[in-house]
Write a structure and sequence with these properties.
By secondary structure, the protein is of the alpha+beta class. Among the domains are: 57 residues, no CATH class; 70 residues, no CATH class; 58 residues, no CATH class. The chain has 16 helices and 11 strands. The strands form 4 sheets. It has a 4-stranded antiparallel beta sheet, with no helix packed on it. Strands 3-2-8 form a 3-stranded antiparallel beta sheet. Strands 1-11 form a two-stranded antiparallel ribbon. A hairpin with a 2-residue loop joins strand 4 and strand 5. Helix 3 crosses helix 10. It is extended, with a radius of gyration of 35 Å. The N and C termini lie far apart (93 Å).
């Protein structure tokens, strides 16, 4: 077969010769064959020859090969940053406040079409009323029954889970069955420090155990290996012992809750999103410290006296350049000593040459007096610092305005836009971390409550909790966390009324936006209306209600 000479010159030997393509045109790739670079790079970002990208050659590794060797260092640095950087700590707190708030409330939603084959609104109402009240009584008790350590309520545990996810990128907890305390329910949750999840030495070469997690051939976690104490507690013998905990009991009751967002297939552990901005966080902190030190140094002296004489004139007055360095030093000391002696005699007993107790240095004659502004000389609050803070805000998933508490350049529209973007980010974290963690706890509690006969709304003919996916039908729920907040209450209340009136929303959704329970609110409104009638307080007529769109009164 004849080949074009130009093609032969480009490709080298003919394919039929059996020789490989020249190295200069062969490209290492992940495809099935030997890919050839025929006409340069199709993607500029993958170019091997551009000046900007030629030296940029990151290694290709699996998810765990990338993550696990860096996990301990990354966690230590994110913890240290969160401890010592006020902005980062404030951002982490902002996450908890925007996701969980002060009370994390269950909104039970059993799937009656699966349990009964049809909708049963009456039973749903009975179930919701009973289950929500009994669960809240246990979950928010001041005796802290949900926490095995008896330190936190359910809300406290969920806030801790969100905080742990922010700093470590994952949450780890175990389900305990406690019998040693006079409790109505034996279910309790033990929060576990992420550092304790690690691979025991005897499994160091086992490919099925990665980062302390044993997985099956499909990648599903089977067993977790948890140190009995923190690795840094070297004085405790338990720190060298591991406990193997299966993820579930034989009948399906979960024992280990390991929550993280998997970014790549075959990823065994999570890592914080803060790691991507750690360098900027560290430099931002150093920048603020240096600027503050500069400001403090400038504030040490209220004023200075600067000499207007050039160096040549001073040397000329001292005898020119023919004198030795030792002679210059002697004349300078004599000159300065005489000046300060004269100045001291002139001042006499005057001891008030200070500005608010701040020193004013005295320099030789031929000088000018210059006031030093306190805090002068630093770009704090400038666009440069704002750009650094935006990196931190992006890593934490919040807006710059919320992180910096700086709303000086923000109007209503931009504030609403920033809050909307933050709300979307917080909703995803709420669903991925807070809701999932709280739902695990609710499922564990409900399983025990049903088996103990504490839920009276369970009917005799209802399917078993353990059959098919009936457990998911029983435990289906939503969680009401922090209020979304309102910038302009009047405008946003009118918008909520419009959404309800036009079928775009409902009382349950709008009350959840404000962190409330619509059923409890309706009961309270009914109770208040009864008291108003009892005391003869006039109710506002419907015809006098404000128009939701304009805020004006509309006629009947």
């Amino acid at each position: 077969m004849n080949h074009d000479p130009e093609i032969m010159e480009l490709l080298g030997d003919a394919p039929s010769s059996g020789k490989p393509a020249p190295v200069r045109v062969r490209v290492n790739g992940a495809g099935a064959g030997e890919e050839l670079s025929i006409a340069g790079d199709a993607y500029e970002g993958a170019s091997r020859f551009s000046r900007e990208m030629a030296n940029y050659s990151p290694v290709i590794r699996s998810a765990d090969a990338d993550l696990l060797p860096a996990k301990a260092t990354a966690d230590a640095r994110t913890r240290d940053t969160a401890r010592n950087d006020a902005y980062v700590q404030g951002g982490a707190t902002l996450r908890k406040d925007n996701i969980v708030g002060s009370y994390y409330m269950l909104n039970a939603k059993p799937v009656t079409t699966v349990l009964f084959g049809k909708e049963d609104e009456k039973w749903e109402d009975e179930w919701q009323e009973e289950v929500e009240e009994k669960f809240a009584l246990w979950a928010e008790s001041l005796d802290n029954w949900p926490d095995a350590a008896r330190q936190n309520t359910l809300t406290g545990l969920v806030r801790m889970a969100v905080d742990t996810h922010t700093i470590h990128g994952e949450v780890l907890a175990s389900a305990e069955w406690l019998r040693d305390q006079p409790r109505m329910f034996n279910t309790a949750i033990q929060m576990i420090d992420i550092d304790r999840l690690s691979t025991p030495p005897e499994f160091a070469g086992d490919p099925a155990v990665r980062g302390g997690v044993r997985r099956n051939k499909h990648g599903a976690p089977q067993t977790y290996y948890v140190r009995m104490a923190h690795p840094s507690d070297w004085m405790t013998p338990d720190s060298y012992l591991w406990k193997a905990i299966d993820i579930r009991k034989p009948w399906g009751r979960i024992q280990m809750m390991h929550i993280f967002e998997q970014l790549r297939p075959d990823q065994s552990r999570g890592i914080s999103a803060m790691v991507a901005a750690l360098s900027e966080m560290k430099m931002t902190k150093n920048f603020r410290q240096m600027v503050l030190q500069n400001a403090v140094l400038n504030a040490t002296y209220a004023a200075t006296v600067e000499s207007e004489l050039p160096t040549e004139a001073i040397f000329a007055q001292l005898g020119g350049s023919d004198v030795s360095p030792e002679k210059v030093q002697e004349m300078l000391m004599s000159y300065m000593g005489g000046h300060f002696n004269t100045l001291s005699q002139f001042m006499g007993a005057a001891k008030n040459l200070q500005i608010d107790g701040v020193k004013i240095p005295h320099l030789p004659p031929g000088s000018k007096f210059k006031l030093q502004g306190a805090g002068q000389g630093g770009p704090l609050g400038s666009e440069f610092e704002q750009s650094l803070l935006r990196h931190i805000a992006a890593a934490l998933g919040v807006s710059y305005e919320q992180l910096s508490r700086d709303y000086t350049k923000t109007n209503y529209s931009s504030a609403r836009a920033a809050m909307a973007e933050t709300h979307k980010a917080m909703l995803s974290i709420k669903r991925m971390v807070a809701d999932r963690f709280a739902s695990h706890i609710y499922t564990l509690w409900l399983e025990e409550a049903i088996n103990k006969g504490e839920i009276t709304s369970v009917r005799r003919n209802m399917p078993s909790f353990y059959e098919k996916q009936f457990k998911d039908a029983y435990t289906a729920c939503d969680w009401v966390g922090a209020s979304r907040g309102q910038v302009d209450e009047k405008k946003e209340t009118e918008a909520a009324i419009l959404r309800i009136d036009n079928g775009l929303s409902d009382l349950e959704t709008e009350n959840a936006r404000l962190g409330g329970d619509w059923r409890k609110r309706m009961r309270q409104i009914k109770r208040e209306m009864g008291w108003k009638q009892f005391y003869g307080i006039l109710q506002p007529e419907a015809k006098n209600q404000s128009n939701a769109a304009s805020g004006t009164k509309k006629a009947a």
